[in-house]
Design goal:
The chain is of the alpha+beta class. It has nine helices and ten strands. A hairpin with a 2-residue loop joins strand 2 and strand 3.
Length: 287
C-alpha cells in the first residue's frame, strides 16, 4: 500500500507534470472506482490543473474550475505516468486499469489496481473535505506544528496497542502497515505495547522515530519517477516484509505476527526484550 512517503513523492512528481496543463479526457474503465457522481468525473475536462496536494494517503488534484479530483490508491492501487498515452479509448475488462486521465499534450496517467479486492477510490468534489476519508484525518506527522507534546496528547487514553494506534488515520494521517513496523523498530518498542502506557521517555523515542523514519523515506523517494517508487520503498525497509532475515541493527532473526488480512514484522532483541510475540493464527494451525 502506498503510504505517506510514496504519496508525498507522487505529489511532487505530479506537481511538475500536471500543473498548468489542461485535462482533456477522464476515462473511467472500472465503474467501481468512482465514489461520487455529482459532479460527474468528466466535469474536470477542459480545466487546467492548478495544484497537487496530499492529505494523508489521498492525492488531490485541484483545477481552475474549482473542482478537485481526489484519489486514494488503497492497498493495491498505483499511478502509472505515461509521456504518451495509447491512442484510442481503453477497453473495459478484467485488467488492472481503473481510470485514465489525459492531458492536452498527449501525456497523462493511468490509475491501476491489482488483485480482486477493488478498493481504489476516485472522487470529484468542490472541497476535499467532502471526501469522508479526508474529513476524518488526524494531524499530518510531518507538519511543522506536529510536536512531541501533540503526539503525547493523541496517545493519552488510547487503550489499544501502539501498532494499531499508529495505523489509525483519524489519529495520525498517512502511516500504514509498513512504516508503522519501521517506526516501532527504530523506537525499540513492541508493537503490542499499549499506547496509553508510554512513559515520557518512550513517547520521546517514538516521536523521534516517527519523524525520522518518514522524513528519510520522503527524501529517498524525492525526485524519483512514479514507476520507481515501489522499488525504492521496498529497498529502504529494514524489518517490514523481511521475515526470516537478520535485523540490520542487532543481527537477530526478524519475526512475524500474522492476522486475517495482514502481518507485522519486528525484531525480538530490539523491540521485545528477546521474547517472541504470540502469533495466534500460527498457534491455531499448529494445534
Amino acid at each position: 500500500m502506498p503510504e505517506l512517503p510514496e504519496v508525498e513523492a507522487l505529489k511532487d512528481f505530479l506537481t511538475d507534470a500536471l500543473v498548468g496543463h489542461e485535462v482533456v479526457r477522464v476515462l473511467p474503465v472500472a465503474v467501481s472506482v468512482l465514489k461520487t457522481y455529482d459532479p460527474p468525473v468528466t466535469a474536470v475536462e477542459g480545466h487546467r490543473v492548478t495544484s497537487v496536494r496530499r492529505h494523508g494517503k489521498f492525492l488531490d488534484l485541484g483545477t481552475d474550475g474549482g473542482l478537485h479530483l481526489v484519489t486514494h490508491l488503497a492497498r493495491a492501487g498505483w499511478l502509472q505516468w505515461k509521456d504518451r498515452l495509447p491512442d484510442g479509448p481503453p477497453r473495459p475488462g478484467k485488467g488492472p486499469l481503473a481510470l485514465r486521465v489525459a492531458l492536452e499534450t498527449g501525456a497523462g496517467f493511468d490509475l491501476t489496481e491489482a488483485g480482486t479486492q477493488k478498493r481504489l477510490a476516485v472522487y470529484v468534489v468542490r472541497d476535499p473535505q467532502e471526501v469522508p476519508g479526508v474529513a476524518r484525518l488526524g494531524p499530518d506527522p510531518l507538519a511543522d506544528d506536529f510536536d512531541e507534546a501533540g503526539l503525547a496528547k493523541l496517545l493519552a487514553g488510547e487503550r489499544r496497542q501502539i501498532k494499531g494506534a499508529l495505523r489509525d488515520q483519524s489519529l495520525i494521517a498517512g502511516v500504514g502497515n509498513a512504516y508503522s513496523d519501521e517506526i516501532l523498530h527504530a523506537a525499540k518498542m513492541s508493537p503490542f505495547k499499549l499506547a496509553a502506557s508510554l512513559s515520557p521517555e518512550e513517547t520521546r523515542r517514538l516521536y523521534a522515530a516517527l519523524r525520522a523514519t518518514l522524513t528519510e523515506a520522503v527524501e529517498r523517494s524525492r525526485g524519483l519517477a512514479a514507476g520507481r517508487l515501489k522499488a525504492e520503498k521496498k529497498s529502504g525497509l529494514r524489518v517490514h516484509g523481511r521475515t526470516g532475515e537478520s535485523c540490520p541493527v542487532c543481527g537477530d532473526t526478524i519475526r512475524e505476527v500474522s492476522f486475517s488480512d495482514s502481518s507485522l514484522q519486528y525484531c525480538p532483541t530490539c523491540q521485545t526484550g528477546g521474547k517472541p510475540l504470540a502469533d495466534r493464527r500460527m498457534s491455531r494451525l499448529l494445534k
